[in-house]
TrEMBL record:
GO terms for biological process: methylation. CDD domains: AdoMet_MTases. Keywords: Methyltransferase, Transferase. This is Class I SAM-dependent methyltransferase. It comes from Streptomyces triticagri. Residues 44-138 form the Methyltransferase type domain.
Amino acid sequence: MAEQARPDFGRTADDYARHRAGFPPELVTRLAERGVAVDGRDVVDLGTGTGTLARLFALAGGRVTGVDPAAPLLQQAEALDREAGVNVTHRVATAEDTGLAGGGYDVVSAGQCWHWFDAPRAAAEVRRLLRPGGRVVIAHFDWLPLPGNAVAATEELITEFNPDWAYGGGTGLYPRWLTDLAVAGFGGIETFSFDLDVPYTPEAWTGRIRASAGVGASLAEAEVDRFTDALESVLRTRFPGDVLEILHRTWAVTAVRR
């Protein structure tokens, strides 16, 4: 089987903006408890997408720059920022080469995206961007497949339509990122996690899955339409009701630029 092309999230920008749940506000509180404050700080959010993490930090008082290579996602981020009443500076660039001035930031974050980066180059860029003593945050907000739940059924369907998809069966924990940061010379590495249910209507959950790497960002349009019909059928027959409670895990690793 040929190697799968890198997902193009620009193709999913509309669903991504409408249906992808953002990081919970509790993440900001938990980070502050661990010495990673964003209020009044200069923050860069790498791989910002539609800006869910950048917007959360801006709402908490941060001066935030969001970086992403997909211009359509940044256009959605700008519209969502206006709705939220916050100002985030956006820049089309990669995490490995942001083009931003070095040594000028207190916090550099990466939400739900570190696995798409060239880790050694991205970690080096994070070090370059941070002031001495600045903090890096790599965070995830993942759905959790458990036997018999809607997430597990959804992942089975994604694999049926896209056998190359390799991100099913996740636990929401990413120990390798700790190694990436340690090898890059960061210190004070810590992790934390917490779980919560996120309510989705069946329509919104279907849109959320279309916005994922395994579906809308990879499959041809006709296949995406077929997948949508199939998932709607699975939800109707196996998980009837107006609301799905989708279990998620928030996980983060923080470290200090020495």
